[in-house]
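Minutes, project check-in

Agenda point 3 was the complex the collaborators sent over. CS summarized: two entities, 225 residues total, and the question is how they sit relative to each other. Sequences were read into the notes so everyone works from the same version.
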Amino acid sequence: DAGVIQSPRHEVTEMGQEVTLRCKPISGHDYLFWYRQTMMRGLELLIYFNNNVPIDDSGMPEDRFSAKMPNASFSTLKIQPSEPRDSAVYFCASTYGTASYTDTQYFGPGTRLTVL
Amino acid sequence: RKEVEQDPGPFNVPEGATVAFNCTYSNSASQSFFWYRQDCRKEPKLLMSVYSSGNEDGRFTAQLNRASQYISLLIRDSKLSDSATYLCVVNPGNTPLVFGKGTRLSVIA
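CS then shared the predicted structure for the full assembly.
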């Protein structure tokens, strides 16, 4: 299996621009998680999906952030407009099973976002 | 009180040393516990689960103390390749996993 795939791996953009991050989970996994990691705040859960349906988006910082999962093999996280404080590493992770909270989460390599 | 707290380190230890990390969690109803490892500029990966009876995997030993709500990770005979950030992870039971900020370990030759 190829593992969780994320693109782009690096993104540098200017304040005010729209940013779209992409994720392909491991085939067969029915849970998908979006995280943001910074030195100050560590790894924060932004939103997660079960069978393509958003379950909890309470971690999304504000309305500038949105996430979709149109099918089982693809998800996007969009920031519009982007701000310098959004600079962070964004990880996507997936897992499988009814005991999903106890199952291993498999992380993608992350997207390193820099907003100038 | 934060849900999962760890000493951020860094812990700088010589090769061959034994090093221990502790982690505390606030939710007494938490059901399961893990240690993840994150190499520099890489993604987190599961290192080991933590069972009530304690568990060992080679040079790594994990312990759980439910009464005191803390988890520990012991690394014996440290190798250069053990240098990484170690994340304490807790399953609260009704929400996704909660990750600590991590403890950074540097093993020095």
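Noted in discussion: The longest strand of chain A covers residues 42-50.
Follow-up: revisit at the next meeting once the mutant set is ready.
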